[in-house]
Structures are given as C-alpha cells and as structure tokens.
C-alpha cells in the first residue's frame, strides 16, 4: 500500500470513495419498477459517468436508443435484454454494449436485476417507443 506523506500535490484532489448503497436512487420514469443511481458523476469525473440501474421483479426499461454509447455490466439477477430480435438473457458477469442501437430490458424471475452503465458525460438523450407485445421489449 502506498500512502502520501504530507500535502497532496498542487492541482490534485482526493479520490472519492463511497458505497453504492449510500448513493440516492431516482426513479426512471420511462421504466417500470426501475431506479438509477449516479455513482460517479460530472462533479467527480469530467469525462465519464458511472451509474447503477436497479430493476425490481416484473420491471424493466422499454425499447429505446441513446445518443451516446453505453457500456454496461450485469451485476445481479436475470433479465431478458435485446436490441433487435432475437433477444438474449443477461446474467451476472455479462458485459453489454449499446451504441445507437435500439435496446430494452425485462426482469426475469423473482429477484431484482441490476447493471452498471458507463458513458461519456456529454449531453445524452434517450428516445423511447413502445411495441405491441410484452416480451418483445414492451412493458
């Protein structure tokens, strides 16, 4: 372990350390039973954000696209996810990537599903739409 002895070098700042459970959750209005946490935001990192999405059983996020790429990593639970058919099951340990591609999530089973998402902090916009059949990206 390396510890700094004395003052931080000029222009440097302390590395923020916090537990994800201490970060407030906000409701994802377009989703169902879904909340979002900004784990690392623009006040801490000027170029990238790290968020955690938590979807309760029966919940999910409907089909949408984002204007900036998103790298995602499944943390817990199981969900059906897809871009264009066919869909796939996402489970812990699976990375997902969505760059301008329509995609959606639907929790499977009786436990919450969550994933982390990293993206640039540049302005982003999501476009949502609905489909006719639940299970095809429509909640």
Any overview of this molecule?
With 139 residues, this protein is mainly β. The chain has a single domain, classed as Jelly Rolls (Sandwich). The protein has strands at 26-27, 32-40, 48-66, 70-76, 78-82, 88-90, 95-98, 103-108, 113-120, 126-128. Strands 1, 2, 3, 4, 5, 6, 7, 8, 9 and 10 form a ten-stranded antiparallel β-sheet that branches. Strand 2 and strand 3 (48-66) form a beta hairpin.
Whole-number tally of structural domains: 1
Element-by-element helix/strand order: EEEEEEEEEE
Q: What percentage of the residues does DSSP assign to strands (E)?
A: over 45%
Helix content: under 10%
Radius of gyration, whole Å: 17 Å
CATH superfamily: Jelly Rolls
And the CATH topology?
Answer: Jelly Rolls
Query: Helices and strands: which structural class?
Result: mainly beta
Using the 3D structure, state the CATH architecture: Sandwich
Counting H and I runs of at least 4 residues, what is the number of helices? 0
Model regions low in confidence, pLDDT < 50 over at least 5 residues: 132-139
How far do the termini sit from each other? 48 Å
Mean pLDDT: 80
CATH level 1 name: Mainly Beta
Sheet with the most strands? 10 strands, antiparallel
Shape: globular
């Amino acid at each position: 372990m390396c510890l700094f002895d004395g003052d931080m070098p000029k222009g440097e700042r302390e590395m923020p350390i916090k537990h994800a459970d201490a970060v407030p959750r906000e409701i994802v209005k377009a989703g169902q039973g879904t909340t979002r946490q900004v784990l690392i935001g623009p006040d801490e990192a000027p170029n990238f954000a790290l968020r955690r999405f938590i979807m309760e059983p029966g919940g999910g996020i409907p089909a949408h696209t984002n204007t900036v790429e998103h790298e995602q990593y499944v943390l817990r639970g199981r969900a059906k996810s897809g871009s264009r058919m066919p869909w796939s099951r996402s489970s812990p340990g699976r990375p997902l990537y969505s760059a301008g591609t329509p995609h959606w999530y639907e929790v499977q089973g009786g436990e919450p599903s969550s994933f982390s998402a990293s993206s640039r902090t540049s302005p982003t916009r999501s476009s949502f739409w609905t489909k006719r059949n639940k299970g095809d990206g429509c909640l």
